Fold this sequence. Notes:
The chain is an all-beta fold.
Amino acid sequence: MRMRLSVTPSQVPSGTVSLRVVNEGVTTHEVVVLPLPSGQTVGKRDEGPGQRIDEAGSLGEASHDCGAGEGKGISPGSTGWTTLKLSPGRYELVCNFPGHYAGGMYAELDVTG
Length: 113
Ligand SMILES: [Cu+2]
């Protein structure tokens, strides 16, 4: 199944960044923030067991219905959010529900100095 994750704006200043995640889809989703190593492009992580990617190094996530931070996922039509401190660099926002990353749920967020 094809899915997508889009981020607006895709470039923000460093410091405190609040992500507001609106689920406009028909299944439950989440957004996890991962550092994007230099030279690596989004969408290139390998799925491991359970059709999920490695979340090691996660800086935070929005996966709570009508709430902040970590939960059981954001239901269709619902909104979740998270606030984090981001240093200048490149980040990959992903949904790590089984199969969703490979389905296209990733996007780049650039943080400028
Ligand atoms: Cu998803």
